[in-house]
């Protein structure tokens, strides 16, 4: 699809109305608990109007903008992963009979909701595709209204990963927010037939060359703002050559193995299974929950944990993201969103760790 249109700010609620009338449950960014998170929303008023985020290693703060931008922020602690791979899922429920057996096993009712995602960024669209490749399509495909980033966060490095900041596919509609004095509008790219049908219900006009040039200028400015960089040339081989590099000991001295990085990562997919009973012991259920390779028990087999040290667990996580993921799934497991850097309590930075290994490879202190 090549159609480019313009929606004025005061007409954007019509987009929400059109999606709701089509039976979609609308999920988008909103302010809660001093962060911008994803939740069910009903209209423009629920968006983070006039808010932006300040991000650095181990640092996240909201602050007011000087305008009323609706999407004037980078990414928060939530990703769309929670709708592809929910944090907790009941796999089945059953009743315990008098002989200790389990009867009346019933699976959970499927989630029949049709989702519309508002505000997905290019890095997250890549993450959705990567995770879908790993776990498969788990529900009805969502209607996706992407937002082209108008500013990069302090920990963003999507340009290094070739995942942004401009989405070129994977969306039904893509919005570029433009504010020029009192004029506030959205340049809209149509990415699917479904997007064209929804847009037909929203007041809009065809974009002029000036509108499209304005959007391209915003995209170029964002690409130049990246808060981080990662040299990905030969990075798989670099990490494979340096399993015993002393940098793993240095980072292990700071790492709390808390698993924050895996919880906020839009592509991490480790899970565990727990069986629980009610207090009477009559009913039992099996739940699937998010887990993390930073948890000692995650690699526990007969005889002990395979990765018993924080050194080995951090090395496993980073090497999987940037190296072995290529061998498994023919892509990187990192999309450069920077969440793992922002939400690490001690500010460990995956780009810094890769740079340190590259810079000291072959030095007298590096054990290859």
Overview in brief:
With 368 residues, this protein is of the alpha+beta class. It is 29% helix and 26% strand. The protein has two domains: 4-85 and 112-223, no CATH class; 235-360, no CATH class.
Give the topology string: H per helix, E per strand.
EHEEEEHEEEHEHEEHEHHHHEEEEHHH
Distance, first to last CA? 50 Å
Q: Helicity level, as a percent range?
A: 25-40%
Q: Tell the overall outline.
A: globular
Number of domains: 2
Structural class of the secondary elements?
Answer: alpha+beta
Strand order of the largest sheet: 3-2-8-9-10-11-1-12
State Rg.
Answer: 23 Å
Count of DSSP H/I helices:
12
Largest sheet: 8 strands, mixed
| β-strand number | 16
Which ranges are low-confidence, i.e. pLDDT below 50, for 5 or more consecutive residues? Answer: none
What is the strand content?
25-35%
Mean pLDDT: 94
Keywords:
368 residues, 2 domains, 4-stranded antiparallel beta sheet, globular
Describe the structure in your own words:
- The chain has helices spanning 13-21, 81-84, 122-135, 158-161, 193-199, 209-223, 235-241, 247-252, 260-264, 310-329, 339-342, 350-360, and strands at 4-8, 24-32, 35-40, 51-56, 59-64, 88-96, 102-106, 114-120, 143-147, 173-180, 183-190, 205-206, 271-277, 283-290, 300-301, 304-305.
- The chain is α+β, with helices and mostly antiparallel strands and 368 residues long.
- It has 2 domains: 4-85 and 112-223, no CATH class; 235-360, no CATH class.
- Strands 3-2-8-9-10-11-1-12 form an 8-stranded mixed β-sheet. It has a 4-stranded antiparallel β-sheet with strand order 7-6-14-13, with no helix packed on it.
- A hairpin with a 5-residue loop joins strand 6 and strand 7 (102-106).
- The termini are far apart.
């Amino acid at each position: 699809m090549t159609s480019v249109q313009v929606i004025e700010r005061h007409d954007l609620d019509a987009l929400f109305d059109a999606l709701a009338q089509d039976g979609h449950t609308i999920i988008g960014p909103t302010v809660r608990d001093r962060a911008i998170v994803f939740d069910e929303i009903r209209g423009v008023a629920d968006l983070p109007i006039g808010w932006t985020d300040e991000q650095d290693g181990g640092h996240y703060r909201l602050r007011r903008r000087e305008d009323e931008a609706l999407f004037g922020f980078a990414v928060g602690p939530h990703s769309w992963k929670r709708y592809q791979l929910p944090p907790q899922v009941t796999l089945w429920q059953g009743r315990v009979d008098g002989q200790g057996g389990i009867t009346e096993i019933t699976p959970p009712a499927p989630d029949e909701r049709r989702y519309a995602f508002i505000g997905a960024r290019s890095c997250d669209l890549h993450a959705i595709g990567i995770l879908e490749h790993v776990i498969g399509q788990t529900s009805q495909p969502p209607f996706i209204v992407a937002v082209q980033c108008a500013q990069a966060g302090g920990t963003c490095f999507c340009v290094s990963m070739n995942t942004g900041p401009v989405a070129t596919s994977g969306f039904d509609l893509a919005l570029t927010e433009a504010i020029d004095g009192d004029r506030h509008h959205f340049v809209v790219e149509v990415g699917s037939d479904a997007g064209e049908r929804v847009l037909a219900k929203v007041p809009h006009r065809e974009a002029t060359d000036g509108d499209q040039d304005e959007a391209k200028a915003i995209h170029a400015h964002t690409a130049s703002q990246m808060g981080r960089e990662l040299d990905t040339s030969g990075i798989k081989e670099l990490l494979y050559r340096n399993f015993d590099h002393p940098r793993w000991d240095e980072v292990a001295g700071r790492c709390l193995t808390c698993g924050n990085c895996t919880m906020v990562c839009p592509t991490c997919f480790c899970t565990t299974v727990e069986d629980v009973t009610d207090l009477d012991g009559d009913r039992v259920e099996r739940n699937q929950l998010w887990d993390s390779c930073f948890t000692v028990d995650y690699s526990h087999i007969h005889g002990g944990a395979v990765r018993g040290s924080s050194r080995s667990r951090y090395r496993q996580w980073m090497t999987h993201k940037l190296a072995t993921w290529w061998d498994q799934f023919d892509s990187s497991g990192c999309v450069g969103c920077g969440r793992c850097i922002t939400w690490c309590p001690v500010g460990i930075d995956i780009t810094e760790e890769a740079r340190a290994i590259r810079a000291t490879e072959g030095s007298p202190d590096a054990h290859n």
